[in-house]
Amino acid sequence: MILTTTPTVEGRPAREYVGIVTGEAILGANMFKDFFSGIRDIVGGRAGSYEGVLRDARNEALGEVERQAAKLGADAVVGIDLDYEVIGDTGSMLMVSASGTAIKF
Question: What string of DSSP letters covers 21-73?
Answer without folding.
Answer: EEEEEEE-HHHHHHHHHTGGGEETTEEHHHHHHHHHHHHHHHHHHHHHHHHTT
